[in-house]
Amino acid sequence: MSSNIRIKKKCQLCNSEFVAKTTVTKFCGEICAKIAYKARKQAEKISNATKKTSYKVDSKDKVQELQLREFLSVKDTALLLGCSSKTIYRLIEKGTIKATNIGDRLTRIKRTEVDHIFYQEN
């Protein structure tokens, strides 16, 4: 079943008047629709790039915040030292870093232990 709707509209891109056959039509033709699509995709790429850049700035703020905490999680310690969490678990198992298990999955490391790694004498 088709309808015989005819609505006069203005194209959102070129502002020319056209007759739309549906209520959701925004552009006067295929060319304007393609131009608007390309502009929308370009804006999306710019937005994604901006989010990635702001994430890096946020990670610097996170490191500064971690330097002020007294107790750190394994993930936070890994971020602070710039290594993986597996490396931190290896250091705990080796005895280089002292850690405490509060629960099944809550391993906490005292901030002074992290500092101690760099100041210990061989």
Biggest sheet record: 3 strands, antiparallel
Could you give the order of the helices and strands?
Answer: EEHEHHEEH
The structural class is: alpha+beta
Low-confidence segments: none
Distance between the termini: 85 Å
Mean pLDDT: 87
Sequence of strands across the biggest β-sheet: 3-5-4
Describe this structure in words.
The protein is of the alpha+beta class and 122 residues long. 52% of the residues lie in helices and 15% in strands. Strands 3-5-4 form a three-stranded antiparallel beta sheet. A two-stranded antiparallel ribbon has the order 1-2. The mean pLDDT is 87.
Question: How do the helices and strands line up, and which of them pair or pack?
Answer:
Blueprint: E1 7-10, E2 17-20, H1 30-66, E3 71-73, H2 74-81, H3 85-94, E4 99-101, E5 107-110, H4 111-119
Antiparallel strand pairs: 1-2, 3-5, 4-5
Helix pairs in contact: 2-3
How would you describe this structure in keywords?
alpha+beta; rod-shaped; 122 residues; two-stranded antiparallel ribbon; 5 strands
What's a quick, concise take on this entry?
The protein is of the alpha+beta class and 122 residues long. It has four helices and five strands, in the order E-E-H-E-H-H-E-E-H. The chain is rod-shaped, with a radius of gyration of 29 Å.
